[in-house]
């Protein structure tokens, strides 16, 4: 397996590099090689990319061209092809011994047909290192957050690979997402890497009462929960858990930093949070660390919250790339213009800590069904120098599909 000549995913370079330099490396060392690899080694793409040559891919010199030349794929492509068609044909000896242990997730609903997504150990490792870096960055570089915590800085190791010590060492986090929801799985890896305990119930759909009891029982000082919403397919909602807590103020463990200084961490993922709930967490409960990740089952975290624009997300880069295409055609959009999100999985990490191409299912210019806007990359108050994803809108796949059809190369 080809070793990519790029910085390690835990390197803050990904957040602070000059945008032109970063774009160049992401395009030439990750996105283009993944597309070439897909055309050569992945059955679905071998067929799907028939209309253009490897040389056409090699000539791609900008993200705009990447959006234009590499056809986007949709959930419909996943639903109508066997999941194995998206896995690279590579010999077992090329990858680490955990190969074979795919993490498999069902996604479904929007097209009516559930689809399976497979991530490999290498993919998983790359994703969790990238996502952790965004948490580490907050404690190491963002004064608005770091000022609330004192902790011993330094390096820790998880499964032989480096990560940084943060206030999450020895934290006790309860996961309120449903057991089979990918958020619990990826967070289990992320939080363990950061030295935290993580309690969750595999293969169960926890109720609000379950979570509340677990929080008390483990004297948790953090929660990972979907913020709020109408259906319970994701798990027990944070808003409902906090309502339960507010009704039981005489309990011995309070989910408010104001009354229980040990309770400090709220994590959430996969959906935007409302201004109202965010304000309650910050002003009423005075929680010093609230962190959201944005992503998809297919590519996992692609962006995470900024402490200064807490409902918006900085792109994480590393294992993933997010580009936007216009709502009508296949051109990329200008900064701040609304477009469909195209996500790509363009990296993984082997057991020696080297960055490689993904070894699980490959997703390139995958249209998630979300629309959003992306700023130009400029230096943010949080210290990052990456584009910010904002105004995220869930657009039903069916309506998107009816507007511009299903592209077949
Ligand atoms: Zn920021």
* Number of discrete domains: 2
- Judged by helices, strands and strand pairing, the structural class is alpha+beta
Overall CATH class of the largest domain: Alpha Beta
- Secondary-structure element string: HHHHHHEEHHEEEHEHEHEHEEEEEEEEEH
**Helical segment count:** 13
CATH fold description of the largest domain: Rossmann fold
Helix fraction, binned, reads 25-40%
Number of strands: 17
Report on the structure:
The structure is a single chain. This protein is of the alpha+beta class and 409 residues long. Helices cover 31% and strands 20% of the residues. It is built from 13 helices and 17 strands. The chain has helices at 13-16, 19-41, 43-48, 54-58, 63-69, 75-80, 121-141, 143-146, 182-193, 208-217, 238-247, 275-284, 397-404, and strands spanning 103-107, 115-119, 155-158, 161-164, 172-175, 197-199, 222-224, 265-269, 289-296, 300-305, 313-315, 320-325, 339-345, 348-349, 355-356, 366-374, 388-394. It has an eleven-stranded mixed sheet with strand order 6-5-7-8-9-10-11-17-16-13-12, sandwiched between helices. The longest helix is centred in the N-terminal third of the chain and has 23 residues, at 19-41. It is globular, with a radius of gyration of 21 Å. The protein starts with 12 loop residues before the first helix and ends in a 5-residue tail after the last helix. Mean pLDDT is 89; it is low at 397-409. The protein binds zinc ion. Zinc ion (ZN) binds at residues 306, 308, 314, 380, 382, 384.
């Amino acid at each position: 397996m080809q070793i990519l000549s790029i910085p390690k995913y835990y390197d803050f370079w990904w957040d602070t590099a000059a945008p032109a330099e970063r774009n160049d490396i992401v395009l030439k060392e990750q996105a283009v090689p993944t597309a070439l690899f897909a055309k050569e080694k992945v059955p679905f793409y071998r067929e799907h990319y028939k209309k253009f040559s490897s040389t056409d891919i090699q000539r791609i010199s900008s993200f705009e061209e990447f959006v234009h030349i590499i056809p986007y794929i949709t959930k419909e492509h996943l639903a109508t092809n066997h999941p194995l068609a998206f896995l690279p044909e590579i010999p077992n000896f090329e990858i680490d011994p955990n190969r074979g242990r795919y993490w498999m997730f069902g996604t479904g609903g929007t097209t009516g047909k559930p689809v399976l997504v497979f991530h490999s150990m290498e993919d998983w490792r790359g994703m969790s290192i990238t996502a952790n870096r965004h948490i580490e960055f907050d404690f190491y570089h963002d004064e608005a957050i770091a000022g609330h915590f004192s902790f011993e800085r330094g390096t820790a190791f998880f499964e032989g690979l480096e990560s940084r010590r943060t206030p999450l060492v020895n934290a006790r986090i309860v996961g309120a997402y449903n057991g089979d929801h990918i958020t619990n799985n990826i967070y289990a890896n992320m939080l363990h890497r950061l030295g935290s305990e993580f309690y969750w119930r595999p293969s169960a759909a926890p109720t609000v009462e379950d979570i509340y009891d677990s929080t008390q029982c483990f004297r948790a000082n953090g929660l990972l929960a979907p913020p709020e919403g109408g259906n319970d397919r994701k798990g027990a909602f944070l808003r409902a858990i906090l309502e339960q807590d507010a009704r039981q103020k005489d309990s011995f463990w309070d989910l408010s930093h104001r009354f229980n200084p040990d309770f400090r961490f709220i994590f959430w993922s996969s959906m935007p949070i409302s201004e109202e709930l965010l304000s309650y967490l910050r002003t009423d409960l005075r929680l010093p660390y609230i962190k959201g990740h944005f992503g998809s089952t297919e590519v996992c975290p692609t962006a995470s919250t900024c402490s200064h624009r807490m409902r918006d997300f900085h792109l994480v880069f590393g294992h993933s790339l997010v580009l936007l295409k216009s709502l009508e055609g296949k051109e990329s959009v200008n900064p701040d213009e609304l477009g469909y999100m195209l996500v790509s999985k363009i990296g993984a990490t082997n057991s020696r800590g080297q960055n490689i191409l993904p070894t699980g299912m490959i997703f390139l210019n995958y249209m998630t069904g979300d629309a959003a806007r992306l700023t130009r990359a400029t230096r943010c108050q949080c210290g990052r120098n990456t584009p910010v994803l904002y105004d995220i809108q869930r657009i039903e796949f069916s309506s998107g599909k009816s507007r511009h059809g299903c592209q077949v190369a």
